[in-house]
Design a protein that fits this description.
The complex is a heterodimer.
Chain A (H helix, E strand, L loop, with lengths): L3 E4 L2 E5 L4 E7 L6 E7 L6 E7 L4 E4 L2 E6 L4 E6 L8 E7 L8 E2 L3 E6 L1
Parallel strand pairs in A: 2-11
Antiparallel strand pairs in A: 1-3, 3-8, 4-5, 4-9, 6-7, 7-8, 9-10, 9-11
Chain B lengths: L4 E3 L2 E4 L5 E6 L6 E7 L6 E7 L2 E5 L7 E4 L6 E5 L8 E8 L7 E2 L3 E5 L1
Classes of the chains: A mainly beta, B mainly beta.
């Protein structure tokens, strides 16, 4: 079955700097890659996603890139702010009604 | 903005007791899911449900677990005889029939003592 690896497990960046979180997946049949942000005591919140027919997608300060050949995808957050502090999960799915396979998460700390 | 809701937010139960966790998915969604997150770990899939039947279930979802959509709005997860290791956050999610996006509820923290 699909396996998603995520790095790093913890990331601290200075406020205003950029943060990058990287994931790899194992099953080349996966074709949808969402990113979720989870704040303390809350459920995962979908922040951005990318389909396999696209190499990059951007939404304001966040962007996601996908390299299907290498089976990598990454989340980029620019101009980080204190409210970006959270746990971020990458994930992969094969089909529209499929289960989500999550990475282990990255705890992002934004330092003042 | 429509959202997935879950009740209760926290449930404490004794080992061996039955619990029912409740979810109200987004109203026009057709696919429903339960996931579990043990403290500090990643979110794990339990079961998916479509057209009044289970589509897929994980190895975690054994005979002690069941799901039901008793009416047009609720989606429930029942654990028949809880074990200590069932202590976790349980998240309900739903998705529509034209998109991949799954939207998660705020979760129910289940504590088994």
């Amino acid at each position: 079955g699909e396996n998603v690896e995520q790095h790093p497990s913890t990331l601290s960046v200075q406020e205003g700097d950029s943060a990058v979180i990287k994931c790899t997946y194992s099953d080349s049949a996966s074709n949808y890659f969402p990113w979720y942000k989870q704040e303390l005591g809350k459920g995962p919140q979908l922040i951005i996603d990318i389909r396999s027919n696209v190499g990059e997608k951007k939404d304001q300060r966040i962007a996601v890139t996908l390299n299907k050949t290498a089976k990598h995808f990454s989340l980029h957050i620019t101009e980080t702010q204190p409210e970006d502090s959270a746990v971020y999960f990458c994930a992969a799915l094969m089909n529209r009604d499929d289960k989500i396979i999550f990475g282990k998460g990255t705890r992002l700390h934004i330092l003042p | 903005e429509p959202e997935v809701t879950q009740t209760p937010s926290h449930q404490v139960t004794q080992m061996g007791q039955e619990v029912i966790l409740r979810c109200v998915p987004i109203s026009n969604h057709l696919y429903f899911y339960w996931y579990r997150q043990i403290l500090g770990q990643k979110v794990e899939f339990l079961v998916s449900f479509y057209n009044n039947e289970i589509s897929e279930k994980s190895e975690i979802f054994d005979d002690q677990f069941s799901v039901e959509r008793p009416d047009g709005s609720n989606f429930t997860l029942k654990i028949r005889s809880t074990k200590l290791e069932d202590s976790a956050m349980y998240f309900c999610a739903s998705s529509g029939d034209t998109s991949y996006e799954q939207y998660f509820g705020p979760g129910t923290r289940l504590t088994v003592t």
